[in-house]
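Convert to structure. Protein one:
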Amino acid sequence: MPKPTNGTEVDPGRRQGFWEPAWLMSILYGAGFLHWLLFFKFGNLTFRAHDWAKEFIYLSLLKQWTLTGKIPYHVNLAFHGTHRFLAIPEINLSPQILLLAFLDVGKFILVNTLILYSLGFLGCLLLKQRYGLKATGFTFLFLIFNFNGHLIAHIGVGHSMWVGYFLLPFYLVFLLELLDRPSSKSSPLKLALIMLVILLQGAFHIFIWCLTFLILLLIFNWNLFRPLIKAIGLSLVAGAFRLVPAGFALIGKKEKFIWSYPTVRDLLDSLVTIREQTPERLKPWGTTGWWEYDVYVGLIGLALIVTFGILMRFSKRKEIERYRYPELDLPSFAMAVLSISYIHAFITRIPFPVLKSERVATRFIIIPFLVVTALAAIRMDKLLEHLKSSLRFKVIAAGLVALMGLSFVDHSYLWSVARLERIYAKRVVDLRIPALFSKADVTYKSILWISLAITVACVAYLVRNLAAQAKKAGGARTKKS
């Protein structure tokens, strides 16, 4: 294997299989699966809590499309200031919407979440395999990734498009792969492909965060110019079907900037405090709910992330040296800074829909948060592996991870749809499905179909080249053996 420029080298001989140890992997996956069943009360939703009424209307219109075949170009209810329904980037246009022909909306939300959760677990297993993570390191990664406050609170209040978050482990794997081997031709293609899949889930915001991180990575690491500019360019071209119609339909729309974390104290509060109401000290900055601040991991989780994700980055220990990834330092720090104070407000004043769309700056924290968490899991695992004779240290680490997991139970229950719908049981919501209407709107329809053709052509290019590179790599391995 070629030695990467950053000194990090992954030894294939030390990799573990996907499902080892089998008993632990089965317990973790099963626990997450059961969690979402209970969280959504088995799909029996009333859609009375927070934004769930809007999600019901979105999905009902898509269900109508799957049953009648009539394309919902325009609806007589404006969303985000437009009647051009298919131009709204938070609409789910993934292949899974075909299931709406067979499932009611509540069951679809549950099934779709379980599908994406399963893919997310697979992505975590890819990280496990790549770095040979053992039980404690992988369990730490699994718990933080699947039960942190950002994900749970957003899905709880009806941001169903946040299921695209579950695809972020693939983004991290391909990103680290690019850093390990900048000369690799496949990594930029994989990044572009997974970012398209994220975008198709309606996870437009997550796509923008991923794109922003790649741009920051490029700004601070010009030696990675070629692979990063390729990844960024192909991501934009592949996402044309969602990005171009959105830019056309939403141009000129005014969005009010919502304040980020006013201080570092508030960011720390969001990481260690379980709450559902926004504190009074934050309300002068805007009317946004606590779900826009919540990144709960608890005191133990934060301590482990800081210790292994930040402090151990500067350790001189030999077992950690290969997993420093210094290229990620400044991009992660810069993106975290974007989530604090009024800095991002200036960017939202640029008159371009894609930039103006990110009006809630606190959300930017999640990508650097996950980057640091993944690195923390890797470094924790390598340190524990090195301390083979220190059983006491390993038991303490495993116990801390287990206690961290228990702290997520209360938080998840607090934000569960099951609980929120009991609280909002008497709330009256309008669940009437808006009618479709016909309108020439030639420009909009042309943009839709032309951008779809561009996306399809780009996907064909990505798949063809990835297949060719996989075949070439397979041939090289055969000759070597």
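Protein two, convert as well:
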Amino acid sequence: MKKLVSRISKELENANYCGVYEPELSRYWPNNGNARENEFASFAELHGLVLRLLQARVLRNFR
């Protein structure tokens, strides 16, 4: 998970958002339904990020 936080933080240095696609997300959070969305939200909050879902189950933007 540290790698994901590092990647998001690095990208946010030069952009207003960081898109994370399903293949990368599934490495950290296997698809287990609705509980997974709560885990994304908790992750974002823990790291001071704002989470936005675009194109259901395809892309999560962190800001």
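The mean pLDDT is 83. The beta strands are 18-21, 51-54, 59-62.
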